[in-house]
Amino acid sequence: MTATETLPPTPRPSWLTRTAWTVLAILCLAVAAWSARYLLDPPQSPAEALGNGFGVVWLPVHVAGALTALVPGLLQFIPALRRGAGPPHRWVGRVYVLGCLVGGAAGLILALGSSAGPIATAGFGSLGSLWIAFTLLGLGAAIRGRFADHRRWMIRSWALTLAAVTLRIYLPLVMILDLPFPPAYRVISFLCWVPNLVAAELWLRLRPSPPLPAPRASDRRAQTG
User: Which band of pLDDT confidence, cut at 50, 70 and 90, is reported for residue 1?
Assistant: First the structure.
């Protein structure tokens, strides 16, 4: 595609897609509002930080990063913002990347202090590591002008960002079902993100990539330089 060619019109989202996005938006905003309490009233002891020995310092940092990723990441699904590689998509994306990196790094530290033992450390540690890795791969693809790869990596990154939502769906179920918390929490350390990532991979395989704009001149120079 040349710079003078135009892209096919973006298909209008179906009512099912719009409904799913609306439900997801409500969940994300509810989780953001609920988690903000750790910023407004930071934990003063490990007991107030889910029993995590590193939680007094790093839980508010993790929450701040995750919230910074959660809301901008949701905005990237609005077609008007997603169209093209320039503003506002680029600036919202930069905020999202910053949130992922801060939240992921703090999450790795918190994983080491998990009161549920090494299984939970492995689960949440894997989440933090992949969250950072996928986000950086998506950022690198965008810098090189490889927008199709950028989209795929960022969908994977967003699936891991949504662990903030799925985690808070599973935790109340533990209390409702009166399950023993430590073993349930170990399972949740994987359950909150592995199904999300599987769903993202299925989506990427079953849904064709939308038409992408031609790389800008600066992107073409970056690819050849």
Answer: very low
Query: Is the confidence at residue 24, as pLDDT, over 70?
Result: yes
Rounded to whole angstroms, the Cα distance separating 112 from 124 reads 9
For every residue of 151-182, DSSP letters joined together read HHHHHHHHHHHTHHHHHHHHHHHHHHTT--HH
Tokens of 93: 């994306």
Whether residue 96 is predicted with pLDDT greater than 50 in this model: the reply is yes
What's the chain's average pLDDT?
84
For residues 29-56, one letter each, b for 16 or more C-beta atoms within 10 angstroms of the residue's C-beta and e for the rest, the string is eebbeebeebeeebbeebeebbbbebbb
Distance between CA 206 and CA 203 in Å, rounded? 5
Contact 66, 99 (CB under 8 A): yes
pTM: 0.82
Please report the beta strands in the chain, taking only residues with DSSP state E, as ranges in sequence order: none
Token pair of 108, please?
Answer: 């790795």
Q: How many residues does the chain have?
A: 225
Contact 105, 121 (CB under 8 A): no
